[in-house]
Automatic annotation (TrEMBL):
Species for this entry: Paenibacillus vini
Family membership: Belongs to the TACO1 family. YeeN subfamily.
NCBIfam families: PRK00110.1, PRK12378.1, YebC/PmpR family DNA-binding transcriptional regulator
Protein name: Probable transcriptional regulatory protein J42TS3_50370
Pfam families for this protein: TACO1_YebC_N (PF20772), Transcrip_reg (PF01709)
Amino acid sequence: MGRKWNNIKEKKASKDANTSRIYAKFGVEIYVAAKKGEPDPESNRALKVVLERAKTYNVPKAIIDRALDKAKGSAEETYEELRYEGFGPNGSMVIVDTLTNNVNRTASAVRSAFNKNGGNMGVSGSVAYMFDATAVIGVANKTLDEVFELMMESDVEVRDIVEEEENIIVYAEPDQFHEVQEAFKQAGITEFTVAELTMLAQNYIALPEDSVPQFEKLIDALEDLEDVQQVYHNVEFEEE
């Protein structure tokens, strides 16, 4: 199942390194998760997931605290979670998850990004059925056998455990996210190289070389949109 997760994350982190965009997106996501329940990760599982993700992307504590304080206060901004699906060059598939306080603005912006970069929007369900919601949790300084044994001893159900770029990555059902993390924490492992709830394609494709720049431009355009939280696709790039 492994999709070279660490390479994907490194490319994203590199792209975001010189901007505050990723921090702003996490700020909104933390606020929304905190507003869904108590602004306490110990009693709000959705918030706990977001905070674990933020930790792996090195989101500053000040950003996290500001979002939590906003949720604890009188602010009542309303955000909707919307998913858009579409196609890129050569039939590539793309999923775009958004958090928005202006549905018309977001829909128009996402559609424009597709249209201007060789893609087109699809109807709801046209792409998502080819992806699986997945918990992805990674650790360093452990062997494949050690992690496999740990998951077995903890009686945690996982889809796959693989070694990727000197990290051990556990793939599991989304509802097993906390169980996998807890198994690691019980073994004294509290630092994670990856902690994500994501959408992984059931089958990945390689684009013709001349289509890759246009596809990358499409993904960049979507990720640059203010209301877009996550972009998933089924294109596998060659290792550089």
